[in-house]
Amino acid sequence: MPRSAASAARGFATTERSSMDVSGTPRRPVAECLRIVDESESMKLFRSRIFSRIVPTVKDIGLWGLQVREAFAAMGAIEFAKVDAGALLENDARVAEDFDARTRLLDASA
Predict the structure, then answer these.
(1) Would 60 be classed as within a structural domain?
(2) What string of DSSP letters covers 55-97?
(3) What pLDDT is stored for residue 1 in this prediction?
(4) Residue 90 lies in a domain
(5) Of the given ranges (8-17, 23-32, 66-75), which has the lowest mean pLDDT?
(6) Backbone angles phi, psi at 51, to 5 degrees
(7) What is residue 2's predicted lDDT score, i.e. its pLDDT?
């Protein structure tokens, strides 16, 4: 079953469920739960981190057609098109080199 742009941005699909859990405790309505998840700081951070990588990469490799732009706009991620994918990769390489150097230093001192 195809997922909506909203559920894709959330990272999971949703289905309606009964109003009680197995112990008889009332559940929150699905819409309320989704709103809580969507507005949580952790979800905002997740979206920011993931889309800051995906959007500039998709643009950089030439998949930046109208439908793709509209989809990213619908998910609220179009602003990441301004991010420089090359600069991200250069920074990733520096971070990886620093990590490897620290790992070798720790291994040498063990």
Answers:
(1) yes
(2) HHHHHHTT---HHHHHHHHHTT-GGGGGS-HHHHHHHHHHHHH
(3) 39
(4) no
(5) 8-17
(6) -75, -25
(7) 47
**In degrees, to the nearest 5, what angle opens at C-alpha 109 toward C-alphas 108 and 110?**
95
Is 104 contained in some domain? no
User: Is there a domain that residue 93 lies in?
Assistant: no
Model confidence over 74-100: pLDDT tens digits?
A: 999 999 999 999 999 999 999 999 999
First to last CA, the chain: 52
Cβ-contact 10, 47 below 8 angstroms: no
Structural domain count of the chain: 1
Residues in the chain: 110
What percent of the chain has pLDDT above 90? Answer: 61
Range of the domain at 25: 5-11+20-83
| Calpha distance 11→5 (Å, rounded) | 10
